[in-house]
Specification:
Layout (H helix, E strand, L loop, with lengths): L2 H6 L8 H41 L11 H9 L10 H17 L2 H9 L5 H12 L6 H8 L6 H10 L6 H6 L2 E4 L2 E4 L7 H32 L2 H12 L6 H12 L4 H8 L15 H24 L4 H9 L4 H29 L3 H6 L7 H11 L2 H25 L9
Antiparallel strand pairs: 1-2
Helix pairs in contact: 2-19, 3-4, 4-6, 5-6, 10-11, 10-14, 10-16, 12-14, 14-16, 15-16, 16-19, 18-19
Length: 417
């Protein structure tokens, strides 16, 4: 039917059919949008806005710039000054701001901001603020007489970088860079902790993913080939950990793995380990790997099972009838069909392991801590902006992983259940 003929058709109430169809489609789209609107608002409020605020905090800190307007203005007007020998005007602006800080009682906020890039600055700022109100020109000599550290180039570089509300300093610190008299440079071996923890976190997460895959593959295969009644019983056992608190499951491993725990007592009773040489499996990396592998194992089993249960058994029988060995049948027939489940389960377990916090905090001790534990420490006790920068870097790594998965396998082949 041509478009002209369609326009001539009308509904029972005399409306053109084309107009009536357009109205019905628009009404259906509005109804669908209203149905998903609560979920959209929920995701916006609980996911996008917090992440956006975190990204903003990773590059924003006005602790110094807000408290030092005079010195900030001087920095903006003199970007090429000599850091090794700041002029009298710079010290005059500094003294004026320190005196105002003392009056406003926000010296600690400004000193804390400088302390993030130049350690030891808080006490220096507090002492300078107390003395600033009684100082007289020349201010440079007065400040240097109060403490020679006020003339150090690294301090002036720190104040200059902090004079802007928005900065990339926290990303540089998170990348183990250190502010020196000549600018940002690579930190010493003992100061490079963040990159080390990032690498350690990804290696441990990859190891946990491999362990979960090796344990989950035969379990998922068994569930896929068993009759439905027996498979359902195994599925209940797989899902049973989800009905138990994560805290309870984690603390249970403490009772099992500690030196006076059930596993060590059993090994001593069997004569496999001497009583004075018990295995150290708790509050170290061993405890972290064991406990996290147990917690994340169901997230590997379910995607594998969802793929394996739809693989026809006749494929393997046909391969065997054509002379293929069991290993060849598995390698060339069965395994390729399970790759979407392997990829989905590995991706899910790896991402969850990278961001895990509770389990390493409880069973890992100092040796078993991951980057998530350091982010939590900075967020609650130290530096919110540095925590946001570390979290943003972790988020970027996860997004890169998603991108690689999409390029290598395809996100449309993701099968989670």
């Amino acid at each position: 039917m041509t478009e002209a003929a369609t326009e001539l058709l009308t509904t029972a109430d005399g409306r053109p059919l084309k107009e009536a169809l357009a109205t019905a489609q628009a009404r259906a789209k509005r109804r669908a949008f209203l149905l998903v609107l609560p979920l959209l608002v929920f995701v916006l409020l609980t996911f996008l806005i917090p992440i956006g605020y975190m990204l903003k905090r990773s590059v924003e800190h006005d602790g110094f710039s807000k408290s030092s307007p005079t010195l900030t203005e001087w920095f903006n007007a003199n970007p090429d000054y000599d850091h090794t020998n700041p002029p009298e005007e710079a010290f005059a602006a500094l003294v004026k701001d320190l005196a105002q800080m003392q009056a406003d009682k926000n010296t600690g906020m400004a000193g804390t901001r400088i302390n993030y890039t130049v350690p030891g600055s808080i006490s220096l700022f507090k002492a300078g603020a107390r003395a600033a109100g009684t100082m007289a020109p020349p201010y440079k000599e007065a400040m240097l007489a109060l403490d020679p550290k006020w003339g150090e180039p690294v301090l002036w570089r720190g104040m200059e970088t902090a004079s802007s509300e928005f900065t990339t300093d926290f990303y540089k610190v998170a990348a183990d860079r250190k502010l020196t008299a000549d600018g940002w440079a690579k930190g010493g071996d003992k100061e490079r902790i963040y990159v080390y923890l990032f690498v350690k976190t990804f290696i441990v997460s990859a190891l946990i993913t491999v362990i979960c895959l090796l344990l989950a593959f035969p379990v998922a295969h068994l569930m896929a080939v068993l009759p439905m009644a027996k498979s359902s019983i195994l599925m209940i056992f797989v899902l049973l950990p989800f009905w138990t608190s994560l805290l309870v499951r984690t603390t249970s491993w403490i009772a099992l793995l500690q030196e006076q725990g059930i596993v060590n007592n059993t090994l001593v009773w069997m004569g496999l380990v001497a009583d004075d040489n018990r295995l150290s499996m708790m509050y170290n990396m061993t405890g972290t790997i064991v406990a996290m592998s147990h917690v994340l194992l169901p997230f590997m089993i379910l995607p594998l099972y969802s793929v394996m249960r739809v693989i026809p058994p006749s494929y393997a029988r046909a391969a065997r009838s054509l002379g293929a060995t069991s290993w060849t049948t598995f390698r060339r027939v069965y395994l390729p069909q399970t790759l979407p489940g392997i990829a989905a389960g590995s991706l899910l377990v790896f991402i969850l392991a990278v961001g895990y916090y509770i389990t390493p905090a409880l069973v890992g001790g100092a040796e078993g801590q991951l980057i998530s534990n350091l982010i939590s420490f900075h967020m609650t006790k130290s530096n919110w902006s540095l925590a946001a920068a570390l979290a943003a870097m972790l988020l970027a790594a996860i997004l890169l992983l998603y991108w690689l998965y999409d390029r290598l396998i395809g996100i449309d082949r993701l099968k989670l259940g």
